[in-house]
């Protein structure tokens, strides 16, 4: 009785022009996806209708711009001739050649999500196309999500990957569910979110779901999520990162000064002259 009005309210919040209201709805996306896939696996269509409508509504809003045209998600590779917090232009070989080569060419635009058609209903063919795109939207705003959403993401990943397999009996869950069909592209998007949660307060849960994803990828022989998950596992530090301070992000970047600085102890022509004058 409560599910339908809650889904309706979440959709109304998401289609508003306020960004914070959209993020409020997005924080529940992992739990909504888990409930939807669990009910789909159990063939409970009656209870699944409002969640399906909410997920499709968010998807159709995200694939189109304000004018109703389908949008392409892309980013532009920045020019190395301009300073940034990651590099200093003067340290990149021949500056004249670098600037001349880059200024004569347009900036490279990389598309990471092509055009997506509008969907009116879920089918077996388009289900994970929609869900993978929704996870992409969640990952793009994951930095704004609360800790409860990170825990929900990890819980969703573990349940989806081990439900219906012997590994689920090792979990302390109140109830066990049947096997849920998964898609390799969806698992890669799931790994993207898990990677962020591992370094931002969910060290134990993140590692647990990472092992569960590897377990499922091995059983399904999914090469892409298996490659990504093993790369993540092998790059993890031995101990948990220090995230004791509230609001502190573990992944830090040291800002590089944009203006080259000369060390105080550097030997210059003026210092040599002063040294000679003192000796004389």
Structure description:
It comes from Eurystomus gularis. One of its GO terms (biological process) is phosphatidylinositol phosphate biosynthetic process. It holds the Pfam family Hyccin. InterPro entries: Hyccin. This is F126B protein. By secondary structure, this protein is mainly α. The chain has 2 domains: about 190 residues, no CATH class; about 45 residues, no CATH class. The chain has 11 helices and 2 strands. Strands 1-2 form a two-stranded antiparallel ribbon. The protein is globular. It starts with a helix and ends with a helix.
Summarize the structure.
With 280 residues, the chain is mainly alpha-helical. The chain contains eleven helices and two strands.
Quickly list its features:
single chain, 280 residues, mainly alpha, two-stranded antiparallel sheet, 11 helices, 2 strands, globular, membrane, cytoplasm
Q: Hey, roughly how much beta strand do the residues contain?
A: under 5%
Tell me the domain tally: 2
- Count of beta strands: 2
In the sheet with the most strands, the strands line up as 1-2
What oligomeric state do these chains adopt? single chain
Helical content stands at 40-55%
Poorly predicted runs:
258-262
Per DSSP, the total helix count is 11
Q: pLDDT average, as an integer? A: 81
| Approximate shape | globular
- N/C terminus separation: 96 Å
Measured on Cα atoms, how large is the radius of gyration?
Answer: 25 Å
The SSE order reads HHHHEHEHHHHHH
Structural class: mainly alpha
Largest sheet, strands/sense/barrel: 2 strands, antiparallel
């Amino acid at each position: 009785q409560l599910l339908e009005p809650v889904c309706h309210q979440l959709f109304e919040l998401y289609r508003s022009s306020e960004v914070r209201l959209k993020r409020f709805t997005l924080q529940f996306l992992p739990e909504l996806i888990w409930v939807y896939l669990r009910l789909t696996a159990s063939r409970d269509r009656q209870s699944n209708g409002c969640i399906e409508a909410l997920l499709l509504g968010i998807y159709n809003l995200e694939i189109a711009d304000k004018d109703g045209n389908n949008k392409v998600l892309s980013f532009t590779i920045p020019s190395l001739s301009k300073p940034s917090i990651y590099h200093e232009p003067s340290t990149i070989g021949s500056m004249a050649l670098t600037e001349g080569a880059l200024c004569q060419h347009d900036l490279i635009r990389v598309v990471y999500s092509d055009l997506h058609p509008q969907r009116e209903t879920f089918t077996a063919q388009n289900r994970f196309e929609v869900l993978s795109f929704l996870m992409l939207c969640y990952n793009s705003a994951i930095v704004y999500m609360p800790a409860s959403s990170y825990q929900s993401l990890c819980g969703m990943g573990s349940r989806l990957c081990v439900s219906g397999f012997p590994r689920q009996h090792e979990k302390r869950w109140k109830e066990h569910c049947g096997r849920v069909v998964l898609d390799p592209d969806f698992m890669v998007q799931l790994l993207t979110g898990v990677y962020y949660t591992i370094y931002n307060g969910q060290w134990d849960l993140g590692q647990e779901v990472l092992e569960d994803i590897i377990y499922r990828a091995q059983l399904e022989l999914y090469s892409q999520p298996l490659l990504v998950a093993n790369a993540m596992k092998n790059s993890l530090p031995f101990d948990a990162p220090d995230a004791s301070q509230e609001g502190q992000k573990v992944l830090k970047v040291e800002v590089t000064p944009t203006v080259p600085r000369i060390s105080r102890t550097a030997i210059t022509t003026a210092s040599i002259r002063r040294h000679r004058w003192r000796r004389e």
